[in-house]
Structures are given as C-alpha cells and as structure tokens.
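Now for one specimen:
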Amino acid sequence: MALKKKKQIKSKPLSDYIFPEHKKMPENEFRIDCFNRCVIYTVNRSKRPQQFSQPKVVKSTKPADCVFCQGNESKTPKEICRYEERGKWQIRVIPNKFYGVHPAYEKAYGRHEVIIETPEHFKTFSEITPKQTVKLFEIFQERYAAHMADKKVKSVMIFKNEGPLGGASLEHTHWQLVSSDILYPENDKYVEYFKNYPEEQLKRWLDSEKERFFYKNKNVVVFCPYVSKFNFEVWVVPKKLSIDFEKMTKEEIKDFAMATHKAIGAIDKMLNFPSYNIVLFPSEKGENLQTHIQIYPRISNWAGFEYGTNCAFNSVLPEVASQELKKNIKR
C-alpha cells in the first residue's frame, strides 16, 4: 500500500506583511541606552495617559486585623528600631518574618527587614507628610550603614511593592531591605558604565536625559528615562556622584526623599494610585554604582517576549510620559 504524500507547508513571502494601512501608522521605535537596556516603543498602539487610569484598589483588611497597624506590635517580630513623635511610633523597622536570606544560611547569607513608614493603615507613600518622608530616607541610610558594617555583606537592596500587581503581600504600605553576600548580576551594567571616570560618565548620562526631566531640586533630578521598560517609568537621580549612599549629606538625603515623594505623588494623581514597584539602588561594596531610584508603575503586564529577551514593549514614549507627569507634580 502506497504511503500518502505529506502536504508541504507553503509560507507567504515576508513582503506580504506590508499592508497599505501600515504606511499611514506612526512608526514604532527600538532604543538601547548607555546601560544596554532595550525597549520597543509601540506608538502605533499608544493610548492617552488617562486611559491607563484604573479604579483605585480598596483595601479589604481592617486595621484591627493588620499586623503593621498601631496596637498590633506584638504580632510582628521584635522591632529593630523606631522613630517616634509624642510617644507614638511613626516608623518601625522589624525583621521580615518570611525572610529570603538569613545570617544562619551558608548559601543565602544576609538579612531581610521590613520598614513600615506610617502607622496609618489607609495611607500610601505619597500621602505621608514631607517630614515623615525625609525621616524615612534617613532611616534607609542608617539601616544601609548598619548592614554594610557586616564584613560579609556586599550589597543592600531597598525596595517597595505597592498594590496587588506590584506583588505586595500585605495591604499596609511598607518597604523591604535585603542585604546579602553577593553582587547581583543585574547591577553589572550600571557598575560597568561608571567603572572609569564616574563623574564624567554621570554628567554625560544626565545630559542625554535632559529633555525628559520633569522635576528637579538643588541636588536631584527626576525623569522618564530614554529607555523606559514600563509605561511612565521614572528615575530619581542625584546630580552629584553619590557612589556611597552612607556618605550623602542630610541636605542631599532630604532632596532625594522629597523628589521621590513628588514623583510618586504625580504618578498616583495621574493614574489613580496604581500598583507599582520602587527600587533604591544605594551602592555595592567596592563598586562604582551611582545611588538612584527606579519607579515602575504596574499598569501593563510583561509577557513571553519581555521575559525571553529582557526587551520590553512600551506604548508610551518617555518624552510624552514626562510631559504628562510634569502637569501632575505638586508644587
């Protein structure tokens, strides 16, 4: 019995992907920056900034049931330090009960802390006072110094997960700090850029981002970077080379804190309190890593392409994003 001949798959030529309507659409753009980060701006499917706004997430946990609320201190691990006003705590630092690293672990050495920036359950970071914000960043600096004093520690990461899409496991706003005995490969691209002539490199970098600045004070600039992997991504960067977070002056810390607070305030106002992540890159032991903050609003999801290539699709050009955020900065 003769075997049936398999049908061959006939592919259309690549030229068939070009349709007349494509010529009328704005062109997408591929960008790579000085840190070798890459993005494809899909301006052909861009939306108005207001279209990204979603209903504000309503917290379902009651303060009485929240372990981070005032009065429930006994439900958390023993605190490391606190900031008080009129005999009541305003900021607490505690060990993370569900730690990812630990001093007892040989293969995952480090310490994992939680920093609760307000006792008020329904407030978010942008809603705490300027004074509270500055004190919070002073505590970041103090905790960073304490961890770096450990000879085994090589890096300290301070970050915030806000909202369900930001990966927050608890609704009460808080930050986390993780110190470890490794240098993270993700930071290599920044370290490499600042390896030689760091002051000149900082100036060159900030000059290249100048058209996207939407806020600045004496010591800090805020902008949507040339390569933004997230819609309305924002970076907060000291103007002066700040390789060692521990050595930033009180004035520099204050300006750093307030610039971050204003940036999040603009994002919350424009996008109606979206989920987001904030990452503070303080520095790494023995490495040239400029202290700065990256803010990632989580209003769109990464998918297979992004995870496979580490190159993101972004439908909002940073030039547009910075203009819109500038309108929402609280003066």
